[in-house]
Every structure is written in structure tokens, then in C-alpha cells.
Amino acid sequence: xxxxxxxxxxxxxxxxxxxxxxxxxxxxxxxxxxxxxxxxxxxxxxxxxxxxxxxxxxxxxxxxxxxxxxxxxxxxxxxxxxxxxxxxxxxxxxxxxxxxxxxxxxxxxxxxxxxxxxxxxxxxxxxxxxxxxxxxxxxxxxxxxxxxxxxxxxxxxxxxxxxxxxxxxxxxxxxxxxxxxxxxxxxxxxxxxxxxxxxxxxxxxxxxxxxxxxxxxxxxxxxxxxxxxxxxxxxxxxxxxxxxxxxxxxxxxxxxxxxxxxxxxxxxxxxxxxxxxxxxxxxxxxxxxxxxxxxxxxxxxxxxxxxxxxxx
Length: 312
Fold this sequence. Notes:
Blueprint: H1 7-20, H2 26-37, E1 46-47, E2 56-57, H3 67-70, H4 73-80, E3 85-86, H5 87-98, E4 108-113, H6 126-134, E5 138-139, H7 150-158, E6 166-171, E7 174-176, E8 185-186, E9 195-196, H8 199-208, H9 221-230, H10 234-238, H11 243-262, E10 271-281, E11 289-299, E12 302-306
Parallel strand pairs: 4-5, 4-6, 6-10, 7-10
Antiparallel strand pairs: 1-2, 3-11, 8-9, 10-11, 11-12
Helix pairs in contact: 1-2, 5-6, 8-9
InterPro entries: LCIB/C_CA (IPR040703)
Domain Limiting CO2-inducible protein B/C beta carbonyic anhydrase: 86-298
Organism: Alexandrium catenella (Red tide dinoflagellate)
């Protein structure tokens, strides 16, 4: 017969099962628990090895059997976003890459410019793990992930930095995938039907390709910004054979440009680290993925340095 389950793994699966019972796809984790208890191993990993204060224990991820339709979601995501990886893997590589620049938990302030959508705070997402690690976050973004706080918001945030400390920002839009691997769709907890993700970015695309004239709206400034930034890309996107993926990539470039326009190193002698990319909402109960597209460090005394090699 199979070997007895590892006690830590068994407890983790049981916990995952209890959590899944509150979700509409609970039966999936029931199968996962049975398979795991039959011998699948679950291991606990650490992030940022070194000083004790830099060690992060990652939660054990439940094994998920999502059926034949969903079995291809991960390859589909990686084909659409080469280099995408679990949020925990991105975090581990990030913390290792910035260690030579003196970034530690106690001397770094963390902020993020990601979409307000609540699914971006799901367990396993890079932004959720980073917030847990640093203890808090300064929210710079709104719908679509753009840093609507602007230069004043960045100034306020960066001036909260510990004395002689560092500033770290994660930014970018997000995209969901359905259990069948359809980009731009997501099955939310408690809902029977798929919804859009990112809804704001997809709505902006629908607006700019509708042919209707939609005036700027001071009561809807974030959607107005998204629509205006994406409008020049409308004709190209309308011809795309992979519209949702190309759309979020265009949205990313607009968000990145805005982030680079508002940041500075006037907060002190420390480093400013920027990690930009696409946050990918995977079907439950898979952990969130992240596709890194920009990773840099700079300071008053140092020109921007590309760190993307950390993810290769």
C-alpha cells in the first residue's frame, strides 16, 4: 500500500479542504485531499534565506485536480505569458536579487500599484505575500493597476521610508483565466457564472471599439484615464487574434510609463526598487501567478540598473 502521509502535508490538505468547503468548487479540493493523502507530498518552502528577519515561510499550497478541461490551464498561461511563475517563486527571486543593495524587512517600505479587484488579494498572489512579509502596504493604484495617486501620492509614500531606508514597489495590471483556460475570464467565489478580469481594462477596450463618443467624466476619473490611454491601441487590438492577452500587455505599458513618470529618489540615500508585470488570477484553488516585465534598482548615487536577469 502507499506510505503513510506526511503529517504536515496531511494537516495542510485538511486545512485546504475546510477552506474549499466555503467555495463553489469544493469537490475539486476533496479529490485533491484524497490524492494527497494517498501519497502526494506537500513541502514547506522558505524565501529569502539568510538573516532570520528575512526568512519567509510560504503557506502550503493545496494540490488541485481540476478535471480534463482545466488540466491545461498552466501550459496555456505559460504559453500566453512566457516566464510567468507562482507568486511565491517571484518573491523568492526578488528578495535574493535586492539583498546586495541592502534591502531588509526593517529598512524597507513597500507599496503596490495593482488593480483594486479583491481577487488580487487572494492567498498566493505576489502582492498578498509581499504585504504579509512587510506587514503593510501603501496602495498607489486603482482599477487597471495605474498609480492614480500621482506624484503627490508617491511623495507621501516615499517620505514614510525608514531613516536611510529603501522603497519597493510592485506594479501592473491583472488578467484572469477561467477553469477552461479562457483569458480575461474568472470564476469568482460564490458566483456560478464567469466574470471579466480585469473588468475595467476590458470595459475600456469595449468602450474605445464601440464607435460611441464617451466624454471624460470627473465622476469616473480612473476609467476615463484607462480609456484615454488605451484608445490609441484600439485599431491594433481589434485585429488581434489573442485580444485579451494583447490588451493586458498594452495596459501594462501604459501603467509602467505612468509609474516611471511619477517616481524619484528624493526620499533619501536608499534604493528605489521597481517590479512591474502582469498579475495572473488562476482558477481556484491554484495560487496566483506573475509575469515579470520590469525589475530595476536605482538611487541618488546610482543610475537605474536592470535586474531582470534574476528571473531568467
